[in-house]
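A quick word before the example. In earlier lectures we treated sequence and structure as two separate objects. From today on, think of them as two lines of the same record. Here is Transcriptional regulator, LysR family protein written that way.
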Amino acid sequence: MELRQLSYFVAVAEELSFTRAAQRLRVVQSAVSTAIRALEREVGAELFDRDSRRVALTAAGAAMLPEARTALAAARAAAQAAAGASGEVRGIVTMGTLLSTGRVNVPRLLGRFSRRHPRAAVRLQYSPSGSAGHARAVLDGRMDLALASLPGRAPAGLAHEIIAEEDLSLLAAPDHPVARRGVVTLAELADESFVDFPVGWGNRTLVDRAFAGAGLSRQVPLEVSDYVTARALICQGLGVGFLPSGAAEEMTGVVSVPLAEPLRWSVSVIHSATRPLSPAAAALLREVRAELEV
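And the structure line, produced from the sequence above:
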């Protein structure tokens, strides 16, 4: 079994498409198909169900995927450790990030990392499912580390440390009734329509838990995945919404309404608690921590 075959298998499993996997790997599709067929013969089981319309993992493929990721990660770590023996940090680090990262200036820390370790590179990724998606990606090895907002206890298997905290701001259009109330409570907001982010995003989880903890429910008819759209919808009076205060301060056309009990939002850096970081990932983690000293 070759590492190349495993890398092709993981690419197809993550893309659920031989075409997209080939584009990602920068090889012709026939090479990917040939490698997968050879791997299936070697393991004695079909790894994918495929037809002209879809590609899906079989039970055997699903069982093999985490082990394949582990094997590839171990191979990368071995190569990076050998390079690190000479004092040089090299390799690719995959890091998840968020729309808001509090006091952590991601471009600045990536600039420092690049200047200090020119033979290493960072692959920066966002997850459609927010911090929950980052946590899953770190646990299964698709990300080396990530910035995430995880209210409450972090999932088992994750090491995490809080690196930034700030309040969530409640935003409303200037002529919205909520904007004229002064200080508001969650109970007074229960009947309002909300503009919010998808389930799995840290700020959404924090707000949902706050309402549930108060024995309240709320309506979220408008879900968005960026601050520009959130501001535009709130500005039109279509709902109120919670955003990290750092991002809210930069927005025009909306007002911040004080909460009787502020909601504290945090950003953590997370990585696997069971899988050692590569030298390059450990160096990037040091740069993340250095942001606390800037």
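Notice the following. The longest helix spans residues 59-84. We will return to this example when we discuss secondary structure assignment.
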